Amino acid sequence: MQLFLHEVETCSGDGSATTEAWVHQMRDIMLDSEDVFDVLDANQVRACSILGDLRAWSKVEAQIRRIKKQLSDISRRRSEYPNLTNNNDPEDSSDKIIGLLTSSPLVHDKDTVGLDRDLDALLQHVLGEESELSVMSLVGMGGVGKTTLAKKVYNHPDVKRHFDRSSWVYVSNKMELRGVLREMARGLVKIPSAEANSLSEGQLQELLLSGLRGMRFLLVLDDVWEKGLWDVIKLVLPKNGMSRVLMTTRNVVVATSVIDVRSDVHRLQPMTFGDSYNLFCRKAFLTDGVCPDDLIETAKDIVRKCVGLPLAIVAAGSMMSRKKKNTEWTSVLESIQKDLSNGEMGVHQALLLSYKDLPHPLKPCFLLLSVIPYDSEISRKKLVRLWIAEGFVKKKNDETLETTAEKYLMELIDRSMIETSVISSSGRVKACRVHDLVHDLAISLSENGNFSVICHDKGASTSARRISLRTSHVQFHKEHKKKLRSVFMFNASAPVVLKSNIVAKRFKLVRILDLENANVLKLPKEIGGLLHLRYLGLRGTKLKKLPRTLQKLYHLQTLDIRKTWINIIAFQIKCLRNLRNLEMKQDGRSIKVLTGLAQLGELQVLTGLQASATVVHEIANLTKLQKLSVEDLNNEDAEKLCSSVNNMKELSYLSIFSGDAIRPLDIATLKPSSCLQKLHIAGPLQKLPVWFTQLDKLTKLRLSFSKLEEDPLSVLAQLPNLLFLQLNKAYQGKVMRCCCPGFPNLKIFIITELEELEEWDVDEGAMPCIQEVWIMSCENLATVPTGLQSLTTLQRLRLVGMPSSFTDRLGELSEDFVRVKHIPSIQIIQQYG
Asked: Where do the H-state alpha helices sit in 415-510?
């Protein structure tokens, strides 16, 4: 069915309204067919318990006959459109796409060309000696590179070192003033998100006005549309202290409306042809950035169509990187020339061309991004789970669905349809976002094809199959009774009531119900009737308990109840045989699961689990687990937990929190999987277990409250792939030493509240790859580590809550300055926590 739908969607004709109507009708029939198959599947599940519902089966048969007739009629009418053809390349079939997908999980730096002069001009302004507050407005059309340039300034090492605080606020034409002030408070005053969300507009203004006094800060306001915004923002910004505001906008009127402070306007022009061509080649020819001789003229013709807009050039270059034959390049150029009336390809046309070039499995994955609010980050894990829940990802060979979905994600990133926003210390994508113009394209395509719709008010009168709600109150149209497949809710701060009749009648075919951070107090019991539900996102809601009817959700793959008020899962969780992800991590609490975990053989992720004798015994059956987080572990159950974990050969993440702050945790018999990459142990150990030396693949390690009596670095330095190390109240000794050639790949090292530590030595040759060091609340540490000057790769040093006797030694005329003068960014924060 998916392949047939793809054939319909790749049809092209004479562009007439009648032809487009034919394609639209065919798409609707195909989607209606999918609905019928879902109903059929539900009836099969229901038949197991009630011996079938003859009326339901009869209704399904009638629907199938109706659809067959519609297909027959519309197929006959196809002959009326002789220009209707299918230009689909067989190379793009789902059977062959996996071979095209990128296998590397690493993130590559985005290429930027031709911005050096602009960057120098902005840096000169931002780092200037002007003592008063000043504003620089960066003006240019959409896709010309304003945000890219602003990010280069924002992340520049000299800028990081120059300012006490910095904040990036994406404004757009969607965000209201309170949202802008809230993001400013989070970034500049470091107020927690939950507290910022609870404050009124006036309270936020007062908080900023008092919190920014005496502070040198950098504020970036990205994509400003309204000239009146500055009139309010300026009221909370002190006019002295050498602070700077960098604003990007498409409208020169917005830029020139900045008055009462020193302000300048920098116009960003389209790239020169030479720079455009260089950028295109970097994206199109990934190996060396050099265009083969037989493609040069075609490549130049394509670049000319992009009229110097970096976003269009990057999109076009990323697309062409997968075209190897001269005929393929010529075909793309001819298609561009045919579709463009003025011979120029702006950003929208380039992005649309990139979308059309996507392999079929990636198109719905891209369109699903339309439901996410502008400039919102979405985690890699969540996006992958949503794609799987929708059924967009098909199992291939021996790969898991998650592995295939992550390849889809990397493909979309490599094609510049998705941007990475957060990466791990190992270089893996943790979160991503979509450029606003790319997001506009996704919304336009989704709404035109009834794929999804965004609803900002109470009315939801649409036949779209996915709805993204931006309101706490919504009235569902009768069409949703048979159409709705996914429901997403964002920015629902007012109390949300899920009415029983709505859930029972309108959500019957829903696969995804994502209520993350919505103000939901209760779930109706009718939610147990959503037999197709694959993803239930309840993270950050106000729920205190779950209805027992959840045990009916046989197809459920992901249940996310993190950061809720739920304490116990009382229903029969053993019935959720297809559950793959059970996320329960709370802030300082764990969740009790009575029994039934042993039956969840497909489970891959299990977090926030409260340990008990029953639980640690049952999880021995979960041999597919890749991530496990167990809390409140007593010593009596520790040995059994070790035995159970030893069965988990695919485990890559393990977190163990002891429930006893006094007695050492006995985990000597643990034999972690050879796949283990991340480990967090919180609780007394006194000494490191012997098996620590065998963790050859470990990349991330956290030790908390360990009460180690011997210097742990002598053992940990031997871990060949360790990238991240944090010691939090983990060591009780007075001296710590990094020996050569220890920590060959360590990038980030954090020590927190090592209260007895007085001396830390670093041998020359140790930590040859270190980039970031944090020292927090180590009150007895007298000096900066000796040997720090030999760490030539060190980029950032963060000192938090350290006594003045320590930080005073870092000044240019002080004794420890020679140890730190080579570090590009040093930040001193007085308070910890």
From this structure: 436-448, 480-483, 500-506
Q: Which residues of 150-186 are buried (b: 16+ CB within 10 A; e: fewer)?
A: bbbbbebeebbebbbbbbbbbbbeebebbbbbbbbbb
pLDDT tier, 745 (very low <50, low <70, confident <90, very high otherwise):
very high
pLDDT band at 487 (very low <50, low <70, confident <90, very high): very high
What sign does the dihedral 397-403-409-411 (CA atoms) show? Answer: negative
- 579-598: average pLDDT: 92
Supply the DSSP string of 650-675, one letter for each residue.
T--EEEEEES-SSSPP--TT----TT
Crossing angle of the two packed helices 177-184 and 201-211, in degrees rounded to 10: 30
Alpha helices in 567-618 (DSSP H): 613-618
pTM of the model: 0.80
pLDDT of residue 25: 65
In the numeric block, which tokens belong to residue 497? 């009531």
CA distance 32 to 51: 26
- Residue 91 scores a pLDDT above 50: no
The single residue listed with the structure tokens 């008092």 is 210
Task: Mark 2-40 as b/e (b = at least 16 C-beta within 10 Å).
Answer: eeebbebbbbbeeeeeebeebbeebbbbbbebbbbebbe
Q: What is the distance between the alpha carbons of residues 321 and 295, in angstroms, rounded to a whole number?
A: 12
Q: Region of 665 please: left (phi>0), alpha (psi -120 to 50) or beta.
A: beta
Q: Which helix (H) or strand (E) holds 95?
A: helix 94-97
Burial of 721 from C-beta contacts in 10 A (0-12 / 13-18 / 19+): middle
What would the mean pLDDT of 735-743 be, rounded to a whole number?
93
Q: Cα(741)–Cα(651) distance, rounded to whole angstroms?
A: 29
Confidence of residue 501 (pLDDT cuts 50, 70, 90): confident
Q: Are 585 and 608 in contact (CB under 8 A)?
A: yes
Q: Report how far apart the first and last C-alpha atoms of the chain are (Å, whole number).
A: 54
CA distance 707 to 686: 5
Give the rounded distance of the alpha carbon of 723 from its chain centre: 21
How many angstroms separate the CA atoms of 635 and 668, rounded?
12
What local confidence, expressed as pLDDT, does residue 242 receive? 86
Q: How far apart are CA 101 and CA 87, in angstroms?
A: 22
C-beta atoms surrounding 499 within 10 Å: 12
Q: What are phi and psi of 446, to 5 degrees?
A: -70, -45
CA–CA separation, 816 and 797 (whole Å): 14
104 closest CA partner among 391, 463, 496, 423: 423
* Between 114 and 642, residue with greater pLDDT: 642
CA–centroid distance for 559 within its chain: 18
What's residue 225's pLDDT? 86
What percentage of the chain has pLDDT greater than the value 90? 44
Local confidence band at 23 (pLDDT 50, 70, 90 cut-offs) = low
What are the DSSP calls for 496-557, one per residue? B---HHHHHHH-TT--EEE-TT--B----GGGGG-TT--EEE-TT-------GGGGG-TT--
Instruction: Report how far residue 171's alpha carbon sits from residue 97's, in angstroms, rounded to the nearest whole number.
Output: 38
Q: Given a cut of 80, is residue 124 above it in pLDDT?
A: yes
Least confident of 205-219, 278-292, 486-500: 486-500
d(CA 593, CA 77): 58
State both tokens at 52: 């079938």
Q: Give the closest residue to 537 by CA, choosing from 526, 552, 527.
A: 527
| pLDDT (average), residues 724-741 | 95
| Interatomic CA distance for residues 699 and 496, integer angstroms | 42
* Length of the chain as a residue count: 833
- Do residues 538 and 521 make contact, with C-beta atoms less than 8 angstroms apart? no
